[in-house]
Amino acid sequence: PVSRYGDERQNSRGVNLANHSLLRGLAGDMQPFSRDRYGVEPLLATQTDTATAGGTTVDTNPSFPSEVVADVRDTSEEETNTAIAVARKFAGTWDTVGVDERAKALERAADLLEERLAEFMALCAREAGKTVKDTIAEVREAADFCRYYAARGREQFGTPQTLAGATGEHNELSLHGRGVFVCISPWNFPLAIFMGQVGAALVAGNAVLAKPAEQTPLIAYRAVQLLHQAGIPTKALQLLPGEGAGVGSWLTSDSRIDGVAFTGSTETARLINRSLAGRDAPLATLIAETGGQNVMLVDSSALPEQVVADAISSAFLSAGQRCSALRVLYLQEDVADKIENMLAGAMQELVVGDPRMLNTDIGPVIDPEALATLQAHAARMDKEGRLIARVPMNPDLQGYFFAPSAYAIDSIGQLQREVFGPVLHVIRYRARDLDKVLEAVNNTGYGLTLGVHSRIDKTQQAIASRARVGNCYINRTMTGAVVGVQPFGGERLSGTGPKAGGPHYLLRFATERTLTINTAAVGGNASLLGLGE
Ligand code: NAD
To answer: Strand pairing partners for 352?
Structure first.
């Protein structure tokens, strides 16, 4: 229901995929956006001479590599420089505009996203290879972020908080933007994460420089145009498409930057951290949401049918390209044979194919590099592990498709890093070794999501209290966190927090100021006071 969250904010509108006439209409509305070829260029408040700036043409279509979706011109170093100067100059003005106006613009953006659902669905399928269901979830999450941060912004940045103190003194605490925020986002949620970071930074009163992932600049381009249309000034939000090693590092090594909101790999987060630390400037804020080594623990009391359904959904849907996705399934040895067999059977029913077809469960992976990494990992697992099952795949499929696979392995130590795709690793454990399993999981250093399947309350609580993870899910899937309901983000190698879509997120984009007034002050220049105007 749209009114699910009461008066605070509207819930994002869903789509009933069982309604055929609605689907036909939606398919028709998506058509124009499924054909056009787009141009993408930096969206800057002050245009420099674009003719001299370097440009590249990028094929940003992962699913159908023969068809170019967008011609992209990367931001030049000179443009980056100017954009930072413009943002720096405008940040103070944007902060004094007041949170209500900023929040209203975000709410308008949410409405516009819903009006243009078909367009963004089509672009998410074409540019990011998302399935129909995933494209709907993507647009909904983006709209939810906008409305949620608008609500939190009003609540936290609206009126200064009055603090208790001595009589004769007034004390208050207020929140303000930090200045210039750089938002660097990944390709796997090219609209939702992009708009979440940008919306939060903006509503908190910062001027924003947005650097989208190389693979998905078009979605970001349309999203920034939409935010401008919703009332965000061009000086408050500029888009700087380009390479991480180019515009990404120019931005994060610049001494005029006050903060960075980053979502992506743990390795890139480290680079950005060093880049910021190397500056001879005020220390910047870094919010980094990174990868995970996510496991699901299953004991013998679990319902096997539900375990299999939830494991498949958590590990393979979205082609395993979610940071929250399940990577390692721990099965208590007493039920392992049965669950493995059921898993192998269920995997035969999955459909890998064109993500725009409703019957497709799993689309392509993002690009040839991702495919090669997954193929190399599968080759290693073919030697080191035991193949439990592989999803059947039409060999004639054109694009970067990888058949989801499940392998039995001996220990989580065999996986050195996050494998970002549809590969599930299965490990058996003895009931009495549960503590050791938890220790091994904690020792990976990651701490993003954890799933538990057990019908025993004590076991659920024991695991939840010992696991050092950001999001723990019991007897359900491990993906699909909902804005404001399951604030999302990890700890340790998985991120700095605060959680996206949670009540503490905006605070990290803010600086605090107190004001203390001696209200009992007497005396002063009485003749001046008497002059009136
Ligand atoms: P990535 O780290 O390769 O890239 C992320 C962004 O960083 C891109 O915009 C890229 O251009 C930029 N970048 C790269 N090098 C840079 C540099 N030196 N300086 C500045 N910017 C630079 O990650 P990806 O492949 O786009 O995304 C997948 C990763 O993101 C996975 O590890 C996944 O787990 C993680 N992720 C985490 C979350 C979360 O909330 N924790 C959510 C989604 C994705």
So the answer is: 362
- Name the residue at shortest CA distance from atom 31 of ligand 1: 265
Task: Tell me the three state secondary structure of residue 41.
Answer: coil
Q: Which two tokens stand for residue 291?
A: 């990868």
CA distance 497 to 502: 10
In angstroms, rounded to a whole number, what is the distance separating the alpha carbons of residues 63 and 400? 6
Task: Give the atom of ligand 1 at the shortest distance from the alpha carbon of 495.
Answer: 41
C-beta separation of 219 from 194 below 8 A: yes
Measured CA angle at 175 (ends 170, 177), to 5 deg: 145
Look up residue 479 and give its two tokens. Answer: 């993906």
State the maximum Cα–Cα separation within the chain, in Å, rounded to a whole number.
93
CA 37, 42, 46, 51 dihedral sign is: negative
205: Cα separation from own chain's centroid: 21
- Residue 528, CA distances (Å) to 186, 385, 522 in order: 60, 87, 14
Q: From the CB of residue 377, how many other CB atoms can be counted at a distance below 10 Å?
A: 19
Question: Under the phi-then-psi rule, with left for phi > 0, alpha for psi from -120 to 50, and beta for the rest, what region is 172?
Answer: beta
Could you give the residue numbers annotated as active site?
A: 289, 323
Mutate to test the pocket of ligand 1, among 198, 215, 216, 263 (most ligand atoms within 8 A of CB): 263
Residue 518: helix, strand or coil by DSSP?
Answer: strand
Strand 423-429 to 207-211 pairing: unpaired
- In tens, the pLDDT along 366-421 reads 999 999 999 999 999 999 999 999 999 999 998 999 999 999 999 999 998 999 99
Pair 276, 255: CB distance under 8 Å: no
Give the atom of ligand 1 at the shortest distance from the alpha carbon of 418: 32
In this structure, the residue with its CA closest to atom 42 of ligand 1 is 323
CA dist 85 and 130 (Å) reads 36
Over the stretch 238-275, which tens digit does the pLDDT of each residue have?
999 999 999 999 999 999 999 999 999 999 999 999 99
Which string of DSSP letters, residue by residue, matches 197-265?
HHHHHHHTT-EEEEE--TT-HHHHHHHHHHHHHTT--TTTEEE--S-IIIIIHHHHT-TT--EEEEES-
C-alpha 531, offset from chain centre: 59
Q: What angle do CA 463, 467, 472 make, to 5 degrees?
A: 80
* 138, 193, 198, 268, best to mutate for ligand 1 pocket (most atoms within 8 Å of CB): 268
On whether the pTM is more than 0.85, the answer is yes
**Closest CA to ligand 1's atom 17:** 244
CA-to-CA separations, 214 to 71, 137, 261, 308, in angstroms, rounded: 12, 22, 17, 35
For the chain, the first-to-last Cα distance in angstroms comes to 56
508: pLDDT strictly greater than 90: yes
Q: Which residues contact 248 (CB under 8 A, 6 or more apart)?
A: 184, 211, 242, 272
Structure confidence at residue 355 as a pLDDT band (50, 70, 90): very high
Count CB atoms within 10 A of the CB of residue 464: 14
